[in-house]
Design a protein that fits this description.
Largest interface: A-B, 44 and 42 residues
CATH architecture of the largest domain in chain B: 2-Layer Sandwich
Shape of chain B: globular
CATH superfamily of the largest domain in chain A: Ribonuclease Z/Hydroxyacylglutathione hydrolase-like
Oligomer: heterodimer
Protein name (chain B): DNA ligase (ATP)
CATH class of the largest domain in chain A: Alpha Beta
GO molecular function, one term (chain B): DNA ligase (ATP) activity
Strand order of the largest sheet of chain A: 7-8-9-10-11-17-18
Number of helices of chain A: 8
Region (Disordered) (chain B): 91-110
Number of domains of chain A: 2
Order of helices and strands of chain A: HEEEEEHEEEEEEHEHEHEEHEHEHE
Number of domains of chain B: 3
Helix content of chain B: 25-40%
Structural class of chain B: alpha+beta
Helix content of chain A: 10-25%
Strand content of chain A: 15-25%
Largest sheet of chain B: 7 strands, mixed
Catalytic activity (chain B): ATP + (deoxyribonucleotide)n-3'-hydroxyl + 5'-phospho-(deoxyribonucleotide)m = (deoxyribonucleotide)n+m + AMP + diphosphate
Strand content of chain B: 15-25%
Number of strands of chain B: 21
Radius of gyration of chain A: 20 Å
EC number (chain B): 6.5.1.1
Number of helices of chain B: 22
Largest sheet of chain A: 7 strands, mixed
Chain lengths: 350, 579
């Protein structure tokens, strides 16, 4: 007898829960057993009794929350089947950030895939997304409107380099989320042949070191010393989004405010943040890729966790795919992370 | 189109004038003819085609998208052209009826150049236009589509004035912007001879424009210490009219017909808006003066003038109700004789003679204000009605003083012309919101919304009456920025709401030039040129002014005003600093 999908996965106040395996995925509150898709702080929280995640995600959590981020931590090797009670789980690359994985759960011939956040576009800092055919696909919809189609990242980075060339007496300050986006921007700059030091805000340092230690070449990335700020004309500096409008950025010579995010596609968003050079670089799937992925998984049923759920659910209906929004709270926040201080953790990470 | 799109994209986000200039120069130096010329034409609003209407764009995009998804997207993005640019489906997608997969092997579409777009727009009939536009949208990317839609709707809005674009062309070859200005109106898109000249590849283009624009002479504000240095007997006084500075030029074309034009102070040809005045330009030469509305021999306030300026269509009714009038104060050219090197006193005689010859009620002379000492001028300034201005006093915003021997020089030369404005209105208001500024101020809360008291349903409440972002020193900016950060109660994107109430809040003394009714503002009033005059750290918020104070100022200024439609000439701040 085939199982109902809700026997395999259901929604609880803590987040997605697998009754047959007795575990949560990316729970927003402390639980007994948590499977974590990736290291962004809205998905990977501290205080669970035990955590199962990829080796890189475990390392990221340890950097963020210290070694004791969970009672016990177990590594999930990519592609390997792991038996948990009555289900079999498997972690597969999601292409979102270093260590990010989709989690598939199988029982009684039914397969449910929780994608976490994912993207199909190339990213030199993490493994590419791998398609996992399934019966039920749990997708995000951060950029779930057809106005979001991410451009080629190379063009965006060239836009930045052109500006550096045109304004050599100014500092280009690039706001980018500390995990993933910042390192991707560095790697993309290197791919375009930029070989000068890329200066980092202190909040970027440890995660960038972690990326480097995983064998991702990012070149010379010194931390900006406070006394040095006024001397960085012509340099590229990467900082958390909250710092681009903060006191911190004032000391640089006539800074050009840049922001690397999928939200930069919408002008009003860029203007609200006082951005002068928006760089449309996203670690999420754009609309076309969300739609394409849903079709390619062959799923007969789609659940939409967070973002612009309604549009994607509507689109599924027009394609004859059963879909429902989960309206999950606590994930993303549409990238509207309000500035608090220099050391604010990244909330949304679009 | 892609280079032009990238330029517009950068300009739209760039708040600094000098950086905009740099972007423009970079574009002009790296873009071939005729593309750069058409771009220049677009930026100076010199292109001659009928703009596409929003309805056309909406029609095209609705044909190609799911209505529910379009509505959601439009709601999210908030701008039709931008939503269309972003949502426009890839041409292969609409054929497959699904999201585009990889590996479609349609040949790449031809991306149009700006020249192709402009040339096609000039020749495409109304019925063929939608298909043409759709074809371009298919071939362009998001930013290209956005720029195309701005171009064809003639709504660039990237914060570049015609003057700035011309300055960029001048910089390209190290010539003066005024030199470009002088020959500008004899040139046409795509301006190849202009570029050839500034790049040193060809001689200066001959101007065969019988009525060209000539850069106007501007004045400096009179400072306290100037009174010591300046000798009143060297100067002549005039009223400073609260109108719009215009230059009227006329001359015979090669066919012998008189060409008549009216230019704004930035060199835009605004003849189309004032056919009644153009008709009166029955002379050869160029004169400088103020546009006013005169009814029954009486000059109306700026509020009345604005009602004429705000109308798109110039109807006979509008011209009867708001008769345009030119009050002249200088002459630059008479016949073929350039008078600009002559002293002001001599030009004035020539001007008086010309006005007498014209004998047209629509053009008259701005009278001289007699004064023997600065004190006499000061009393004239504070009460123009008593010193000969009579009922026109409402349209006077101060005095001008001009050296009797001053030549007419382009730009703002020092030492010749001064403006001595009427004292501004002052009001004590309470800070309600702070907003982050732009450019160098992008990390400072430098734009302040302030309010005054009025009776609300639950007792007295503050109602916002304006927003100011200058008037304070750099040191005061730091203090205000700190105040906003330390007293935030709410955040809305870049805006912070600060504490305010009867017993707390910061009082700002706001100076402004005038008031008008506005349906867009909750308080029903809009301020002209508001700025922070003083920070009243000492004053309790409860003692700030009430809305009635503003109502009184308003009533004084609109004794015979028709109801306003609420719109404001937004460039008044810069345009208004005329003489």
């Amino acid at each position: 007898m085939a199982l109902r999908s809700t026997d395999i996965l259901t929604q609880t106040p803590q987040g997605l829960y697998c009754p047959l395996g007795d575990f949560h995925i990316d729970p927003v509150r402390p639980v007994k057993r948590a499977l974590i898709t990736h290291g962004h702080s809205d998905h990977a929280r501290s205080g669970h009794r035990s955590v199962l995640a990829t080796r890189e995600t475990l390392r990221i959590m340890a950097v963020r929350y210290s070694e004791g981020f969970a009672g016990a931590a177990q590594e999930a090797p990519l592609g390997e089947s792991i038996r948990i009670k009555d289900v079999t789980v498997r972690f597969t690359p999601a292409g979102h950030v270093l260590g990010s994985a989709q989690i598939s759960i199988e029982a009684g011939g039914t397969r449910v895939v929780v994608s976490g956040d994912y993207k199909r576009a190339a990213d030199p800092t993490c493994l590419p997304y791998e398609l996992v055919p399934c019966d039920v696909f749990i997708t995000e919809a951060t950029f779930g409107l057809p106005v979001f189609r991410h451009p080629d990242t190379r063009d965006e980075v060239r836009k930045l380099l052109d500006s550096v060339h045109l304004f050599p007496e100014r500092t280009h300050i690039v706001g980018a989320y500390a995990l993933g986006k910042a390192q991707r921007v560095m790697a993309l700059l290197r791919e375009e042949g930029y070989d000068k030091p890329i200066y980092l805000h202190g909040a970027m340092e440890r995660l960038t070191e972690l990326y480097k230690s995983e064998g991702i070449p990012l070149g010379e990335t010194p931390k900006v010393a406070a006394s040095e700020r006024s001397k960085l004309a012509g340099a590229i500096v990467i900082c958390p989004p909250s710092s681009i409008q903060d006191l911190w950025s004032r000391r640089f010579p006539d800074p050009v405010t840049c922001f690397a995010s999928g939200w930069m596609r919408v002008r009003a968003r860029a203007r609200q943040k006082g951005v002068e050079l928006p760089l449309v670089i996203s670690d999420h799937s754009d609309w076309d890729d969300l739609c394409r992925t849903i079709v390619e998984t062959g799923a007969g049923e789609v659940w939409v966790t967070h973002g612009q759920e309604d549009a994607l659910v509507h689109w599924c209906a027009t394609q004859g795919i059963k879909a429902r929004p989960l309206h999950m709270l606590g994930y993303g926040d549409e990238g509207d992370a309000e500035e608090t201080s220099d050391t604010a953790p990244e909330g949304g990470h679009a | 189109m892609n280079r032009f799109a990238a330029l517009l994209d950068r300009l739209a986000y760039e708040p600094r004038r000098n950086a905009k200039l740099r972007l423009l120069v970079d574009y002009f130096s790296h873009t071939p003819d005729p593309d750069r010329g058409y771009a220049l034409a677009a930026l100076t609003n010199s292109l001659m085609f009928k703009e596409a209407k929003p309805g056309l764009i909406r029609g095209l995009v609705e044909e190609r998208t799911d209505p529910v998804l379009f509505r959601m997207s439009y709601h999210y993005v908030g701008d039709l052209a931008e939503t269309t640019a972003l949502i426009w489906p890839h041409p292969s997608a609409s054929e497959e009826g699904a999201a585009p997969g990889p590996g479609h092997n349609n040949p790449p579409l031809h991306v149009p150049t700006i020249s192709e777009v402009v040339e096609a727009l000039a020749t495409t009939g109304k019925s063929e236009l939608p298909a043409r536009v759709a074809g371009w949208l298919d071939a362009l990317d998001e930013i290209g589509r956005w720029a195309l839609l701005k171009l064809i709707t003639r709504e660039l809005r990237v914060g570049v004035s015609a003057r700035l674009a011309k300055t960029a062309v001048a910089q390209l070859g190290g010539v003066e912007a005024d030199e470009v200005e002088l020959i500008w109106h004899g040139l046409e898109p795509p301006y190849e001879p202009l570029f050839a000249w500034v790049e040193g590849r060809a001689p200066k283009p001959e101007t065969n424009n019988p009525a060209p624009f000539r850069p106007p002479m501007l004045s400096h504000p009179l400072e306290e210490e100037d009174f010591e240095k300046l000798d009143p007997s060297d100067f002549w006084g005039e009223w400073k009219w609260d109108g719009i500075r215009l230059q009227a030029a006329a001359g015979k074309g090669s066919d012998g017909r008189l060409v008549r034009r009216i230019y704004s102070r930035t060199g835009e040809d605004v003849s189309g808006a004032f056919p009644d005045l153009v008709e009166a330009l029955d002379f050869e030469g160029a004169i400088d003066g103020e546009l006013l509305i005169v009814r029954d021999g009486r000059v109306q306030s700026f509020n009345v003038l604005q009602q004429r300026l705000n109308r798109k269509a110039v109807t006979a009714k509008l011209m009867t109700e708001f008769p345009a009038h030119l009050r002249v104060y200088d002459i630059l050219v008479e016949g073929y004789e350039d008078l600009r090197h002559l002293p002001f006193s001599e030009r004035r005689q020539r001007l008086e003679a010309l006005v007498e010859r014209l004998d047209d009620p629509r053009i008259d002379l701005s009278p001289l204000v007699e004064f023997s000492s600065w004190d006499v001028l000061a009393s004239a300034r504070s009460d123009p009605a008593a010193i000969g201005a009579g009922p026109d006093a409402d349209a006077i915003e101060g005095c001008m003083i001009k050296r009797a021997d001053s030549p007419y020089l382009p730009g703002r030369p020092k030492g010749y012309w001064y403006k001595w404005k009427r004292d501004p209105y002052l009001v004590d208001a309470v800070m309600m919101y702070g907003q982050r500024g732009h450019g160098k101020r992008s990390s400072y809360y430098s734009d302040y919304t302030f309010g005054v008291w009025r009776d609300g349903s639950d007792g007295e409440e503050l109602v916002p009456v304006g927003k100011a972002y200058h008037g304070f020193t750099d040191e005061e900016l730091l203090q205000l920025d700190r105040y906003v950060r330390n007293h935030t109660v709410n955040r809305f994107g870049p805006v912070r709401e600060v504490e305010y109430g009867k017993d707390r809040g910061l009082v700002l003394e706001v100076a402004f030039e005038g008031l008008q009714r506005s349906s867009r503002h909750k308080s029903g009033v809009a301020m002209r040129f508001p700025r922070i005059n003083r920070i009243r750290w000492d004053k309790p918020a409860a003692e700030a002014d009430r809305i009635e104070t503003l109502e009184k100022i308003l009533e004084r200024g609109e004794k015979e005003i028709h109801p306003l439609d609420g719109r404001i000439v937004t460039d008044r701040e810069t345009e208004g600093e005329t003489s």
